[in-house]
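User: Structure please.
Assistant: Input sequence and predicted structure:
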Amino acid sequence: MDKPPSLGSVSTLPRRSATPASDYRRMVEAVEDYAIFMLDANGVILSWNRGAQRLKAYEADEIIGRHFSIFYPPELLARRWPEHELAVAVQVGKYEEEGWRLRKDGTRFWASVIITRIDGDQGQVLGFVKVTRDLTERQR
């Protein structure tokens, strides 16, 4: 049986570095290949991870507080597609698709999108988590 590769000088994380919430926040922030961010119940962006910054080219301070429809091309805005996505997520718990989205500079990329509803203790919709991945290379 082969030995697993050595991790070298990688140190292990302490058992409890802070709180579960801060550990979770650090975990999401560390993801660079996926844009992961939270929306309020109306689609306003509440959080922004490193992957979102890399993929969409907005800094957190320039995008938090704006509506997520900013990522949609004009033809989808004309069809009220962002509102449709949230309506489906409210109704069935999540929305998934692949389609064109926009970066800050207006360039398009082919995105895999998942929007998941976040419910409160009483079943009310608190907001959504949106996860986006750039699949442009696969589309070509």
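DSSP finds six helices and four strands in the chain.
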